[in-house]
Specification:
By secondary structure, this protein is α/β, with parallel strands linked by helices. It contains 11 helices and 14 strands.
Length: 366
Amino acid sequence: MSTDEQYMRRALELAARGRGRTSPNPMVGCVIVSDGKIIGEGYHERAGGPHAEANAIADARARFGPTASRLQSTAFYITLEPCTHHGKTPPCIDLLLKERPGRVVVAMEDSNPLVAGKGIQALAAAGIPVEVGVLEAEARRLNEAFIKFITARRPFVIAKCAMTLDGKIATRTGHSQWVTGEAARRRVHELRDEVDAILVGSRTVMVDNPRLTTRLEDRVGKDPIRIILDAGDYLSPDSNVFRHKSQAPTWIAVTEPRDYPFANDVIRLPKGNGGVDMGALMEELGRRDVTLLLIEGGGTTLASAFEDGIVDKVMFFIAPKIVGGREAITPVEGVGLATMDEAVQLADVETTHVGEDILVTGYVKQ
């Protein structure tokens, strides 16, 4: 690994600390190096807060005092091109042009049309050497949700399920607690802490009565927005998702003119495959700045998501159990496809052990 890659990898590690807190903005990390030593580090900690470059400069000055104000001989390693537009904070490019570092290394160009190379061009025009593309693949993977959102104005969608080895998410009686072990369930709560919203069907709410909150043992988690597809008269104000106290709102997506006084909002949408038009729902969530969406099921909801082509990533937890039964519920129901040639294909598939279970992760081929 080159020296540039080492420092950029550290910047990516810092950027990842903002996971689940920066939406709808990207995760960004910055490392300042002088004479082969890191003198400042920072990352974008939360949406609306100072950006990574500003935090790294403040860190350098806090560590080394006035000497850190002379940054002309330093190298800045930044995971994303410095922004050039005014938002809730000033443009980072202005800060860099003021400090005039000796060199800037950028992992990737910003996909935001408001930036899109302008920051890199501004540095080069000012005579500051710039190198772009160090660990670009890793940087793009880190901000995959931001890239999808900023270019398509729709959320990046993860389809998640927990199933047995023979592909069941519940027994023939509907019993489903618990398919997977504690480690896998803990990983799901970590996922909830990272995403903007969770989507489930009303039948899941009726049968499982979940809270859809984040519960972590070692820290206070962030509850995502809870979104429920109501395909019938299943929802009750006595359900946990409506009664459990949470700072996150609960939205209900429907196709019929029903009222739900116990919900925070009702999203009325056109009909799609067997229920809500999922594409129209994604457009509306994009307008509401939902960047990363986790679909937790059940089988009908996941079927609609795949049929409407909204899924970007799959995360299936597989438990070493066999349930059997032709009436047992499967993770993706619906009518199904006629031939194997039509099957949804995955790329970049990875398998990892999560406690006693196996997690299969992959990206839907477009």
